[in-house]
Every structure is written in C-alpha cells, then in structure tokens.
Amino acid sequence: MKSRNLVSFLLMSLLAVTISCTKKVDLNEKVLNLAVTSEIKGMDPIYSNDKYSSNEVGRVYEGLLEYHYLKRPYTLVPNLAESLPEVSEDGLTYTFKIKKGVLFHDDKAFEGGKGRELVAEDFVYSIKRLADPKLQGLGWWLLSGKIKGLDAWRDKNAEKDKVDYSEEVEGLRALDKYTLQFKLTKQFPQFLYSLAMPFTFAVAKEVVDHYGKEFLNHPVGTGPFMLGEFKQTAKKFSYTRNPKFRKKLFPSEASDEFKHMLKYAGKPVPFVDRIEINVVKEDQPRWLNFLKGRVDYIGIPKDNFEAAVTPGKGLDKQFEEKGVELSISPSLDVTYTAFNHDLKLLQNRDLRRALALAYDVKEFNKLFYNGTALPAQSVIPPGIAGYMPDYVSPYRNRDLAKAKELLAKAGYPDGKGLPEITYDCPSSSTSRQIGELFKKQMAEIGVNIKVVQNSWPELQKKITKRQVMLYGIAWGADYPDAENFLQLLYGPNKSPGANGSGYDNPEFNKLFAKASIMQDSPERTAIYEELNKMAAEEVPWIYGVHRQSYLIKHSWLKNYMTTDFEAGQAQYLDVDLDQKKKMQDKL
Amino acid sequence: MNTWSYIIRRLLYTIPIILGVCLIIFAIFNLSGYDPAQLLLGKHASAKQIAEVRHELGLDRPLVEQYLDIVKSAFTFDFGRSWATKQQIIEMIKEGAIPSLTLTLPAFLISTTLSILLAIVVSFFRGKAIDRALVIISVSLMSIPSLAYILFFQKFFAYEMGWFEISGYEHGFPYFVPYIILPVIIMVVLNLGPDLRYFRTVILDDIYQDYVRTARAKGLSEKAVLLKHVLKNSLIPIITYVIIQIPFLILGTLLLESFFSIPGLGGLTVKAVFDNDFPVIKAMTILSAMGYIIFTVITDILYTVVDPRVRLK
Known about the structure:
The structure holds 2 protein chains of 2 kinds.
Chain A: H1 3-21, E1 31-36, H2 51-60, E2 65-67, E3 76-78, E4 86-87, E5 93-97, H3 120-131, H4 140-143, H5 150-159, E6 172-176, E7 179-183, H6 191-194, H7 205-211, E8 225-226, E9 236-241, E10 248-249, E11 268-269, E12 274-279, H8 283-291, E13 297-299, H9 305-308, H10 317-320, E14 325-330, E15 333-339, H11 349-358, H12 361-369, E16 374-375, H13 400-409, E17 421-426, H14 429-443, E18 449-454, H15 456-464, E19 470-476, H16 483-486, H17 506-515, H18 522-538, E20 541-543, E21 545-546, E22 548-553, E23 557-558, E24 574-575, H19 577-584
Parallel strand pairs in A: 1-12, 17-18, 17-19
Antiparallel strand pairs in A: 2-3, 4-5, 5-7, 6-7, 8-9, 9-12, 10-11, 13-22, 14-22, 15-19, 15-20, 16-21, 23-24
Helix pairs in contact in A: 11-13, 17-18
Chain B: H1 3-32, H2 36-41, H3 47-57, H4 63-76, H5 89-124, H6 129-143, H7 146-160, H8 177-207, H9 210-217, H10 222-243, H11 246-251, H12 254-259, H13 265-275, H14 278-306
C-alpha cells in the first residue's frame, strides 16, 4: 500500500471507530438526562448549602415536609410526616407523627445489608448532627437559638473530644417510635420551612458510623432514587430508582396554572428508572447537548437567548418545530447595590435617594438580562406574602432632574464636594460591565464612581469588615417567606450576619422583630408590606431586579416546571419514550 | 561522579526547595487576609460559628505549627481533606490525574512527534515554498485563540457532523476514547505552531555550524547530514523543551477540560482557587514543584545519554 493510501486508510478507520463509538440516545429506558452547571460538593445533607448539592441530596434523602408540587404560592405538605404537625396553643411545641413502614435504602451499613425502617429517633439524630460542633454543618444558622436545649448541647459538646449524641435535648425528642416533638425557645413560624430543607433530612446513624468521614460519598436515604458511591471529582453520575420506595402518589390538587398536569394525579412516583447527571460548566456544550436531545431541559444561555426567544417572549419557530417548549417563571431573588451604612457620607438619605433616581434599571435589565427581569421596587420578590404588585417606589424610576435636586439637598450640588465613591464587585467580566454602567449613569448627575473588582473571597471579606462604600450583590430565598429577605436589613443581623450593609433603623428593627414571630396571617402580611415600603423609601440599597428563569425543555419531558426549591422534583418528572422516539429524527 | 550519586545529591537539594515552596505558599495564604471559615460558612455565618470553624480547621494555632504541618504533608503526601468537599485530597488528585493524562499525553506525543518530523522536513527544504508555507501555517495556527478552536470544532465536528461526542467522559479504556479524540485534536492543533517553530529554529541553528559544513564537505548526503549530525546535536534543547512540559501534562488543561467536561486536575485546581480551598491549592503547588524538580533531574541525566561530552557534577 502506498504511504498516501495508508494515511487515508488510517484516518478513515479512526473516523469510523469514533463515529461508531459516539453514544446514541437510549430510547428503551426511562432516563432523565440532566445537565448541572457546577460540581456537587457532596451528598451529606448538613453541608448542602448550595442549590446544586441540595438538589442532589433531595433525590436520595427526604424530610418531614416538602413543598406541594402543583401549588403556588409555595405550600408545605407532609412528606415523611404522616400529616402537618400539631402545634400547641402557645406556638412553641410542634408534634409530628411520622409515616410507618418507610425504609432506608439497602446498604452494607445495615444488618444483613437490608435497609431498616425509619423511626422518629432518626430525625432526632439527624438534627443533632446538624448542630454537632465538630461537624460544622452549614445549615446550623437555620436552627441556632430556636430549639430548647440544642444550643446548650452544642456548646457543651464543643468542649469535649467526642460529641455525645445520647444526651437528651429538651426541645428535640422522640416520644415513641413514630412521634417526634420539637419545643421552640420562642415563636418562630418559619420553623416548618426548615423541615423541608435538605439540611434537616433524615440520615441513619449506623450508615454515618459505618462510613465515618466518607459518609458524604455514600448517600443512603429513604428517597425515590439511590446513588451508591459518589465521586466528587466525577463529571457524571447516575441514580437508579429505589425499588423499595413507599407508595407515594402524584398530587391530585393543583393551582390553576398546573391543572394540566393532573393527568398524572394518583399515579405512584417516581416515573423514571434512572437519572443521569452531567456536570457541564460551559454554555456551548450544554446548549449543543440539549439540541441533540441528550439533556432534557436547560436554562437558556445568555448568548443563545436571542436565537431562542422572540422579542414577544415566545419561542422561536425553529425550536417549536422540534417540540421544544419554553417555561418562564419568576425567581425568589433580588439583586441590589448596597450602601455601607457605617459611613457618615452614606447615612445621608437624600444622597442615597439621589443615586437611586440616577440609576436606570431598564437599561441594566436590557443589557444584562435581555429585558426579562422584573425591576425591583423594594426587597420582597413576587410570589410571597408582602410583595405588592401595584406598588411603585418613589425612588425607583429614573428621574435625573429630581436626582440632581436631591443631590443638592444632600449638600452636593452637581456632585461638588462629593468624594469619589468606590463600587466593589466580583471579578467576572459581567460584574465589571455592570459596574461600568453604574459609573456612567452616576456621572450624569456629577457623581464620580470608581469600580473596584475583587475575587469573591476578597469581596466577602471587605463586606464582612465593611471596608466598602457600595457593592453589587444578589440574594436568593432560602425559604418562601418575606422574613428571609427583610432580615437582610435587620440591625442585629449586621455582618458577619446576613445584613452586610449594616443598615440599622430602630423603627424597622422593631416592626421586623414583631412580624418575625407572627404566624402567617393578614396582620403579618400588612406588617411585611409596611416594612417593604419603608425599605423602598429609606433606600438602604439601590434596588436592581427580580430575575426570571427562562428554561426550555423537550416535549418528551412531562410534568416539568421551574421551581425555586428543586430538591425532590425529579420524582414527579416523566419521560414519554414514544414522544422521544418521534422527535429524535427532528433533532 | 556516577549517575546514582548525582541523582541522590540532586534529590537532596530539593529538600530546601520544597521547604521554600511551603514557606511561600504559607506566606501567600496567611498574608492574603481571607478568612476561610467565613467563606466556608457562607451567607449566614455568625461570629461564634466562624470562631468554631477556625478552631476545627486549626487556623487558631501558632503559625509555626501550621507551617510545619505543610512541610509534613509535603514529605508524607498526606494532604488531609479538602475544606470544600471534605474528601481525601490525595484521592481527589489520583482520580483527576488519569483523565488529565488521557487527554494531555496522547496530544503531547502526537504533537511532539509531528512537529519534530515537520521541523526536519522544513529544515531540509529551508527557504523553499514548503518551508515558507508550513511556517505561515504554524504562525496562523498560533494566532487563533484556543477558545475559537474549541467553540468551532465542538460546534462543527461534534454537533453538526456528529463525528465526536460533544462533551463528557467515561472512566477506563476504551470507554474514554470517543470523548477525548476531539479535545486531543484541538490540543495537537494548538501545540503544533509553537512546537514546529521552536524545533525548526533549533535545527536551523545547527545547520549553519562548522561541523555541518565539514560533513557536507566530506560528501555526505543532505539527508544523512540532517538525521545523523544535525538532529543528534539538536537533541539537548529539544529534550529540555519536551521534558519540562511533562509535569504540566499531569495538571491538565483547564479550558479543554471545562468545555469537554473532562474530570481532570485543571478544573480541580481552579475550583480550589475559587473555593479558597487551601489544602487542595497547597497540595497541587507542592506536587507541581516536585514534578518540576524531578523532571529537571531527568533532563540533566538524558543530556549525558545524548551527548557524551556532558558530565554530571
């Protein structure tokens, strides 16, 4: 064979081998194919403080409560609890009955390798683990100071070499095999939300003891899916359906917008046999894998947004023809530019108001969110009590004349006498662009801004020590209650607490303290609204936007909806294999 | 001095270098002023919790003790657990090294072999059209940013043509093969330009030496001059260039790993930097320094193999 022919032959063979090795889409098994954008830190519930880890934990582990899948506003319903708890008249004692016959996954950590029944004591143990001072669970803030005797137990054990789990805690007891009781130190209506968060999900002591420090890589829960060993460096991992999962049915009630999903009402979950998770950090491969049908749904990457979504916020025709569907929903979050209230300069309310009025949120929204986000009027996002859909802040819409007037009233006519103000932001290119836009807009009223970029740790350090003047940041809800947003402006929460700007207004603090111990009621909502208005008019921050998520999914994926609390969502999703076969040729 | 005593002496010299590396990374970390406890606890941290985590991480111990811990880990390879993932660091490194090598090693071997061969060809035809064409092509290849290659090749060859996997990785041979072919091709294309230009320069430097003129005067063919004399004498800079790259092969290549979802050490290191995961950064820095030192010793020994005039002292 001549050398030229040999080279051609080798190249063709290599190509043929490659093409034949290229993975085909499996059309015989119900597999949910998901792409996540970040590595998973581990599968231990007490460390699941980011959405990626908590979503994965939520496939394997379960809590007493969960959010109703088909209801908005978000509503808590029993999961491992038999029903919602009995609450004492003083609102301090919560008693739960837990479901009987719920089994942990089979694992060698159990006697005979068979998963045993979940009992109330497992929750006592799991919550003590969250409080364990040696483990430093990242969700401890959720229960700190809330359960009688738990903080004392934590403090006492911090001094010991080994934490004593056998010591009883007054506010956390298993009254019998299936009865669990919490006693709170003070009224805290948000407590129930804690029990729907992965931090408090049930783990079995023998599994933790068996795997020791490697427990976070050996998830064994009661949930609908099982993982086996987990490798944190892996970019791909696969769950299988738990064959011993209890009989749990798809909900038979729904809010109006989800009524069309009731076709599945009463059917046992989960519906899929496997879940394949791929960690795909970059937008292009995630997008291309979706277009090839290898990922069932994704958020639309910024660079592909205009190709996929029409100016009328519909889906482009070429995608519709492929059976792709668009889902738009608001996120429970707020972006903002915070003032450092330790600085005398920024305690000047007229100055803050002037800067807020010079800020053009519409341009910001257009440039950075393709005009899809909702301009925030104040702290509370839509979808939770306290949000006022018709309220427009007097310091929100851009008004340069009024901004200049206020700047003069603040003592700085046309910016004269005003020192250079620094704006700190993270080091990404988008953050830099946001900073530059802010600088340009402020210059129009004579305010001189200097944009300072920081690594994320550096920015956090500066905020904690309040070594910043202004900084740009965002907050996403931990649970669907306005308290979680308003606490960002509560004086006693000053950094290193969540109140990084150090805003401290006695009137606000008093009202917040009152509302934070009230049960959900029209009275509490009225106070939330008052606080929201106060936050709008006092301008402790310049409000940005409430982001909206734009997701696209393939037609074969059933029951999908965007949610702020995804943990556990996979059990309700289904893959229609006939539809998938039909659509494959079009992709 | 025999080779073994040279190796032992050079390896002993590495001890103060490792101590210095440990001191530098310890100083950088402590001078940065970041509080890892605050970063690890996230948005709800209280001062008390931060103090507890600092205690758990041993950050409240005397600085000398903390430095000695780093030194100890460098000599025992026990780097402890990652602060971010709580996993054994040495296990994370072992898991990441193989995917990185499955990508970088074939790319390195192919691009090195190919560029040496092409360098010989262009040197043989120096000044002629083929030489000029290959130099222009290599300069053009170098002028295009790596990201452009990745985006284009991935979109065109993997998505449009369907010849390769778009992204992903399967552990074990031959399962990883379909996933690494495209990134290997990209890496070869990226390396070819600089490698070819370097090797060409090295070979041409020798071509104009007196001993080559002598060889030609003796009537040796151009082919024999190039392969027997020039190439042999060019081997020292070529070996230096090639071997010094080896430690970096283990570290992987961040962009390719990121775009092709390959679970290698490049991504691991960058993630550790973003997470302020000091134990992982420390381990990777120490191992890189060690790799560099070891491969420098290997380079020196190879000099004596390819050129008997070189003596180890």
